[in-house]
Amino acid sequence: MPDFSDSCSNILKYAGIGDADRSKIVAKIGQFAAMPDQGEAGDDARRLRKELTAYYYEIYKRVFFASLEDNHIPDEVLMFLYFGYIDEKLAGAENTQILYNMTRTMGLDEQLRIFTFYQWLRLVYMCKKDPSVNDFSTDYITTIRKQKREGSLTDAQEKEALFNGRARVEFEIDNMFKSANRMMSARITTFVPFFSGQTLTKPLEKSLLNFDIIHKTLGVIKAVDYSLFYRQTVYTAPELGLDKAFIQVEVLPDIILMPVIGSRAAMWQEITGAKRTTPGRFLLPIGQEEELAGILIKVCAEFRWELCKRIQGARWNDLTERSLTSDYVDYIDTYRKNRDLSQEAKERIKSAMTKHRNSYKEMFVADYATYIQYESSGALRHNKVVRAILFNYCPFSKVIREGAIATNPQYTQLIERYNHKAAHDIHLFDIATGRIEKAGHEIPPELLAHSAFLHS
Asked: Number of folded domains in the chain?
């Protein structure tokens, strides 16, 4: 392994930081590394953590932009970009070795669905991905166009700003990166973004994520909730005699691995821009110290909830327009009067509401997690009302419907109702595709994919 004893100074030099400031930051990092408890509550410790956090994001910007002109980025610089590594003493020699080894093997996800934050920023810089929304759910394009409307930008300046790689990256770092990094940390109140071995709660090699394990874990969830990432869209093919058809298309999320060790994840946005068939955006710490499956299930639950709210708009909780969110809100609001619920079930709902701070969304996330982890295997945990809502809007895959729960009396009627509707949809689809084939045309790939969805 290379000598990393001068990592901090080398990274700061790479960032173009002058001698005086470099010496000051190196000293601050050394002071922090020497603290027996880096999360201590004293004023001096708080002040030091605040200074280091401010340094971090400025250094990250400088290092990122410098790397764009470099075809041979030094190892410690890549370790900083991928993991927030800055100093061997702060990280610990063994952890430094682990980070170095992983950096050397870091490539691109073959499916181009999972990205390290550094890879993601390069795509944002090259205008291949748009910056994420900020804490107010406002994206970069909306921000620029608002400035144009207010008169602070001319037409030419607006056009230039939309494709200004540097401005796009700075927006991503100043907004999503700063918020998400802290949010995913296990130490939110004492968070410092530089990698420190002292903050680890389990051996580093057991928490670092890779593309394969994320794909595999998400695949397990999709094998249960098969319609999770499908959206309805309109398909037209007048040349085939098909004027308008509603089909389902799968839109997988972009998953970004943030340079932080943490115990949380974030469903940052359910779509990109205004178009409803654009990918959502999931954020994971590159070192996940909690069980990945449980974390991803909760993120998928949030995605289900927020996408429904986005599609329903202002009527997301209006029962006159039935949807996942409106049915679930009605279930929580009326559970005390619901004759289908036992007194014991009502007490459990009341207790859960207290636990989840009377949040509909948090209640749903917990119920969805139970549905995926337990109900799908036949281990019943839910009351009949919430079970019906979940099965109606998040039905289990065919394998589970015909397997683990096929003969369970609690699901028999729900499956029968599902099969009846599915048979009707398949019949109508077969009529439409039959006409296309009868006219001598091949079935388009989009319709074949929809057919596979209907038979899932």
From this structure: 1
